[in-house]
């Protein structure tokens, strides 16, 4: 079980004793023992190793409280047990010893957004899979609509410029590592017949943003051959007013726009229009985000890869793991990886990237992004246990763990949330854990940090800039 809440009522006469050995529960690798536990003033256990909440009329003095020595001895024993497992020490940035490197579909999930270190590791793995494991499709946690522009750039279409991609991505917490990979992939494709594609698997949170993405793509594609019909289609895309006739011009091979697109691009635009129509409201997009991403991944994999070709996916571990997302505690909030595992079985494999300490780029407030210090990994967490074992990068295959091994692991998204650690069963979430001792934050220029706008403000800015430009034409 991933989450256990025990509630009990007691009295002073009963000394508030909770006998829990009959439940057969485990926390941090150790079985919860049949011991008496004293309540603190909040009627909750002070020992963080046990997630037990009680309701009582009066707390009594308990003579058998768990000692800190016993607790520390148990944690030390757990760390020693991990040391006996066949953990892989990674040297010289060679990831070939990781069994999942040859997976048909590999999901690489970072537990921290905004980490330059974790981003570089993820893209180094993807580059190695491109060179050695016939990876022809890379999927990334950014909007599919915007990746139409990106994919043209990496396929060496000179109409699409890197500075436009950088401007669009500058508010993203992982944009610098992503931009570096985009430049690398463009160069790789130059000497490999443009064989590798990079697509987004996400959906813009606002329908308006999706319309802006599509309008910018079409406008750039026809920058040298504009006419009134194309301009009117671009304008309606921008305003979310595309007609059935417009959609035919975009997605049919005989359409004024469609005839200038590849077959894949026509199908992807059709998919974008369908998804935008199905999920019109931001609330619906956020609530169904993981199933949308899973469906998009499935669509792209089935459409763009051939037998023997592999796919690499990079995103947050809360999306790519096999069970649930969010803060990892809601059991009904299925992650994208849950649906991928159901669709592809063992052909989809996920690994997690985690770190012991360091810094990350984060949203400090609604309007401000900046470097934040990561919360120290608590004693007993998987990060702390791996840090005590050896210096350097490690890989722990979860197949050697028991399903009842419950341990805390970090999960931090875009916000600087002080609550960063949650109990999980690693074996139920991924094939392995790739551990990096220290994280360095993504670097952004002071100009970018000063003009940073949150997603909503940035979308409105983009719309107003495009609308003003359209009115001048």
SSE layout and pairing:
Layout: E1 9-10, E2 26-27, E3 30-31, E4 55-56, H1 68-83, E5 88-90, E6 105-110, H2 116-132, E7 135-143, H3 144-154, H4 162-169, H5 175-190, E8 197-202, H6 207-221, H7 228-238, H8 244-251, H9 263-278, H10 282-287, H11 289-304, E9 310-316, H12 317-320, H13 336-344, E10 348-363, E11 369-373, H14 382-389, E12 393-397, E13 407-410, E14 421-424, H15 426-429, E15 432-439, H16 446-450, H17 455-472
Parallel strand pairs: 1-4, 6-9, 6-10, 7-8, 7-9, 10-15
Antiparallel strand pairs: 2-3, 5-12, 10-11, 12-15, 13-14
Helix pairs in contact: 1-14, 2-5, 3-6, 6-7, 6-17, 9-11, 11-13
Q: What's the tally of helices?
A: 17
Structural class: alpha/beta
Rg of Cα set? 25 Å
Note the main sheet: 9 strands, mixed
Kindly report how far apart the N and C termini lie. 61 Å
Q: What characteristic shape results from the CA principal axes?
A: globular
Q: What level of helicity do the residues show?
A: 25-40%
Overall pLDDT confidence: 83
Q: Give me the count of strands.
A: 15
Q: Any low-confidence stretches, pLDDT <50, length ≥5?
A: 7-18, 35-71
Task: Give the percentage of residues in beta strands.
Answer: 15-25%
């Amino acid at each position: 079980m991933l989450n256990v809440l025990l509630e009990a009522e007691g009295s002073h006469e009963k000394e508030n004793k909770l006998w829990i050995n009959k439940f057969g529960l485990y926390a941090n690798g150790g079985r919860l023992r049949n011991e008496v536990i004293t309540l603190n003033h909040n009627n909750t256990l002070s020992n963080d190793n046990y997630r037990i909440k009680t309701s009582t009329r009066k707390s009594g003095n308990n003579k058998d409280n768990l000692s800190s020595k016993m607790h520390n001895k148990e944690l030390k024993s757990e760390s020693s047990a991990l040391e006996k497992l066949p953990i892989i020490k990674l040297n010289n940035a060679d990831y070939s010893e990781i069994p999942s490197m040859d997976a048909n579909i590999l999901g690489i999930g970072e537990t921290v957004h905004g980490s330059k270190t974790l981003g570089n590791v993820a893209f180094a793995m993807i580059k190695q899979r491109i060179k050695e494991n016939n990876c022809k499709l890379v999927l990334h946690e950014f909007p599919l609509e915007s990746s139409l522009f990106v994919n043209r750039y990496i396929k060496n279409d000179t109409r699409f410029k890197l500075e436009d991609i950088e401007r669009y991505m500058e508010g993203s917490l992982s944009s610098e590592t992503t931009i570096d990979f985009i430049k690398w992939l463009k160069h790789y494709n130059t000497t490999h017949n443009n064989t590798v594609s990079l697509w987004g698997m996400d959906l813009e949170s606002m329908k308006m943003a999706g319309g802006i993405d599509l309008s910018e793509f079409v406008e750039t594609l026809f920058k040298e051959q504009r006419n009134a019909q194309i301009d009117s289609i671009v304008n309606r895309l921008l305003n979310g007013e595309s007609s059935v006739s417009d959609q035919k011009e975009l997605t049919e091979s005989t359409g004024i726009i469609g005839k200038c697109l590849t077959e894949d691009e026509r199908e992807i635009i059709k998919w974008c229009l369908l998804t935008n129509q199905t999920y019109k409201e931001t609330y619906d997009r956020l609530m169904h985000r993981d199933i949308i991403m899973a469906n998009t991944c499935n669509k792209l994999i089935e459409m763009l890869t051939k037998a023997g070709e592999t796919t690499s996916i990079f995103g947050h571990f809360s999306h790519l793991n096999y069970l649930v997302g969010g803060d990892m505690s809601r059991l009904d909030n299925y992650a994208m990886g849950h649906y991928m595992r159901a669709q592809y079985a063992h052909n989809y494999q996920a690994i997690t990237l985690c770190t012991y300490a360091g810094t990350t780029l984060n949203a400090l407030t609604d309007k401000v992004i900046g470097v934040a210090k990561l919360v120290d990994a608590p004693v007993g967490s998987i990060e702390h246990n791996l840090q005590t074992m050896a210096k350097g990068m490690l890989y722990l295959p979860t197949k050697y763990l028991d399903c009842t091994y419950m341990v805390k692991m970090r999960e931090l998204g875009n916000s600087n949330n002080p609550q960063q650690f949650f109990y999980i069963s690693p074996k139920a979430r991924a094939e392995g854990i790739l551990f990096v001792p220290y994280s360095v934050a993504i670097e952004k220029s002071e100009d970018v940090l000063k003009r940073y706008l949150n997603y909503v403000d940035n979308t409105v800015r983009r719309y107003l800039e495009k609308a003003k430009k359209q009115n001048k034409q």
